[in-house]
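In the current project phase, we have settled on a layout for protein records. One protein thus recorded is set out beneath this paragraph:
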Amino acid sequence: MSSIFNALKEKDAASLGLAAMPGIFVLLWSTGFIGAKFGLPYAEPFTFLFLRFVLTLLLLTPLIWIMRISWPSSPTLWKHIAVSGLLVHGTYLGGVFYGIYWGMPAGLAALLVGLQPLLTAACAGPLLGERLTRRQWLGLLLGLVGISLVLGSKLELGSTLFSGFGMGALVSVMAALVGISLGTLYQKRYCTSMPLLSGAAIQYMAAGGLLGIGALLFESREVEWSTTFILTLGWLVLVLSIAAILLLMALIKKGEASRVASLFYLVPPVTALQAWWLFDERLPLMGLIGMVIAIAGVVMVVKSASK
């Protein structure tokens, strides 16, 4: 009897752990924006990201070998994975980090790039031949209204173009949004057979090369190796670039990838809550209402696409 009871307890614990995994993944993913806020006072964006990708590859490559994960066998697939990496990691992270570096609040940056499902759905028609439903069009409209309210509320807070940041920050984060959206579509079309872990390593190689060139051309490459910067860099490498990817692999293996996709719309409010707690970043009431409306639009698009 006791053995049966113990087996049931272990089964319940495993089920509870599996149910919590998507939420844990989203919570970890949202800390990437917070990590940028912590680390950027000590290194410029391209330099920061280049160091992150180099350290990630130094740890990830032996892990791929230990786990006996295969690499893509086709040179063409290598090329497509590299291109997707330039968009998904290079343009996306480079744009987000530069936007935060130039003063954009981490919560607002998370909300803007969190509109990626909206832009992806809008581009899927002309690029992939997919048609939008009325519900998805309504979601796109809600997303635009919501983000207009958020940006409008920031406009009212200061005498400059936006409170605490300028047009350069907005352009950078919008470039990140375009990069992650196009990268998602490109990966969906050309990289469906990509092994997740070794494919991520190839993407990191491509993005690291691009950002390294950017650091050489546009930055001083000086780093202040403070305790805060080292801990932040370690968190982004170990938790975001490796642990989160391994967690995603486990979720896909368990058939939970769709739950992760549906929970991604929680990243902006979770990031905003963390930024409020850690950095006292605030949105006025109109901005909070706009965030809710924008997230509702993303939910409608994602839910409609999954049906």
Summary: The first helix runs from residue 2 to 39.
